[in-house]
What we know:
Helix content is 41%, strand content 15%.
Amino acid sequence: MKTILVTGSMGQIGSELVPRLRRIYGEDHVIATDIRPPDKEQGPYVQLDVTDRRAFYDTAKRYGADSILHLAALLSARAERDPLLAWEINMGGLLNALETARELNAQLFTPSSIGVFGPDAPKDRTPQVTVQRPVTMYGVNKVAGELLCQYYFLKYGVDTRGLRFPGLISHTAPPGGGTTDYAVDIYFAAARHGGYESYIAAGTFMDFMYMPDAVEAVIQLMEADPSGLVHRNAYNVTAMSADPEMLAAEIRKHIPDFRLHYRVDPLKQRIAESWPDSLDTTAAENEWGFRPRFTLEKMTEEMLAFAGGRNPPEDGPRGNSP
Ligand code: VAH
């Protein structure tokens, strides 16, 4: 990757990925774009609606992008409330990204999700290759997206690559409209109020990963030797499987009287129950060396430190490595 165009750069992933990319490739080589105007000017920024194919192509062409990291999307719960808008943005935006990558001979990364799996996929250590019958519009978008990316690779030779992200936990930017957002909110609520009311029920296990591991995985995958990539669209990746009680128990090691209550959101609970409890990540480990650094313990230490406005502990892996 030399000149990188990022869409959705002000979202949960983009807010950490863009600064990391700029530290590695140079500020002027990373063009941040989003539908929203920038809240602070830092390096090249373009306000871009990814559903506008002409604008997408012209922006990538103008900056000579050789890699596109297409993050702009509506997440699961928001998509379930407005499925037609989700189809328009998630599929229309991806098709514009693919067409732009094809015409400019650029690499393309786009996130997939554990949401590609439905209730009839194996729940524990869900295999890289297994039945994908999601019951959400978001999941349908992600399965169709994986197939579209693989089609562009096979038919046009576009270097498409993707990751099936679990719930991503970060302190930099709030998540927006996801089912797994509770796992971010719980840390801020713990640090500020000493308690949290979870909309996901106890015993509902999902995969999670700390954002620094997700950011490194994107860069590692995009720089990997393409000859070794078999399951390029898209790889199972995760760092831990947890339910609200496990997160609370880890938080109580720092805030002993942390209180966890429940007010289950039927829509988000239904989505969460349709997803795997844990993924198998062997393909990513074998094909490009995926190895997350953060455990639940280390992530909790860092999340509580940032959420409480303190500096994180010095020992062990750091959220934003220099
Ligand atoms: C969501 N955070 O909750 C996203 C993600 C696996 C979950 O796709 O929709």
